[in-house]
Amino acid sequence: MDPHLLRTYVTVARLASFSEAARELGYTQSAVSQHIAALENDLGLPLLGRRPVVPTPAGERLLEHAGSLLLRLDAARADLARFAAAPRGTLTLAVSPLALHPRTLGALPASGVTLRTLPRDEVPAAVATGAADLGLVDGLAAPSDPLRLPDVAPLTAVRVAEEPLAVVLPAGHPLAGRPGLRLADLVDARWLDAPEAGIPLDGLRAAHGGPAGHGFRTALLYEGTDTRTLGALAAAGHGLTLLPLSLADAIAGAVAVPLSAPRLVHRTELLHTGAEPAASAVELAACLVAESTWRLRT
To answer: Closest by alpha carbon to 289, among 117, 161, 164, 124?
Structure first.
């Protein structure tokens, strides 16, 4: 399967238009049509309806494979390009919002760093494809367990931080005086859905282990990445949220009640490709691992 043809197909399917795909890819519309026809001939199946331009059932199934296939190819190209690349004095660090601990920020070099905040699912891909030199990604995990990361490329993950979790409640909430809360007691509560700034509700449902899609109803959807806004929404009573205890404790007008069950922590990991990094990346990695030792002892 020719990856150039596959990339054209994905673009046409995403835009639902041959002409728009041609404009985005820099091809003529005729060339795009030829690419799609060649891919359909190769696979022996129609992949796109023409009026309207929508994937066929076979085309939908191909799309399920295409993203990971193309990402893996981009990651391989970037990995090999590192062998020929000249050393750089600058560093790009991709981070998910909840991986931005104040002491982590304090470990950054004084200059030469580009800090790029991304949704947590995009951080591994950014490192794999060379869009970032290093990545910091966070998530829920059992104590001392690694995060479950997408298999986008051979990446090395190093624990940087683990800390307890807390449910953020408005100061006047009936549960605010509890010494701890179980996730099972909060299944029917109304929650803030902040997939990029906080812990995704799907993660809470998976941790609770109830029926698929059950519980943890969305009271308000927040599509931003600012964790302070998320905390302010919880303090104002728009819904509950689960945050690292150090962050939850600092939210004005809210009460942070530790999560007592299940036994989960908020974990942050440093991602790199294993290739020889720039000196600034080595320095930052050393600082972050040292920070990990400090945080895990406190």
So the answer is: 161
The tens digit of pLDDT for each residue in 99-145 reads: 987 767 777 777 778 999 999 999 999 999 989 989 999 999 999 89
- Interval 189-241: pLDDT, tens: 999 999 999 999 999 999 988 765 578 999 999 999 999 999 999 999 999 99
Spatial distance between the Cα atoms of 264 and 273, rounded to a whole number of angstroms: 27
3-15 helix and 57-84 helix, angle to the nearest 10 degrees: 120
Q: Where are the alpha helices (DSSP H) in 47-111?
A: 57-84, 102-106
Question: What's the pLDDT score for residue 41?
Answer: 94
Q: Which two tokens stand for residue 286?
A: 């050393």
Give pLDDT, residue 275.
Answer: 60
Give start and end residues of each alpha helix (H) in the chain. 3-15, 18-25, 29-43, 57-84, 102-106, 123-128, 201-208, 227-235, 245-248, 279-297
Residue holding tokens 């991304």? Answer: 118
List beta partners, residue 140: 266
Higher pLDDT, 151 or 28: 28
Distance CA 207, CA 151 (A): 21
- The pTM score is 0.78
Look up residue 200 and give its two tokens. 């995704």
186 neighbors 261 (Cβ within 8 angstroms): no
* DSSP H or E segment with residue 217: strand 217-221
Contact 101, 288 (CB under 8 A): no
> Where is 142: in which H helix or E strand?
none
Residue matched to tokens 């190769």: 42
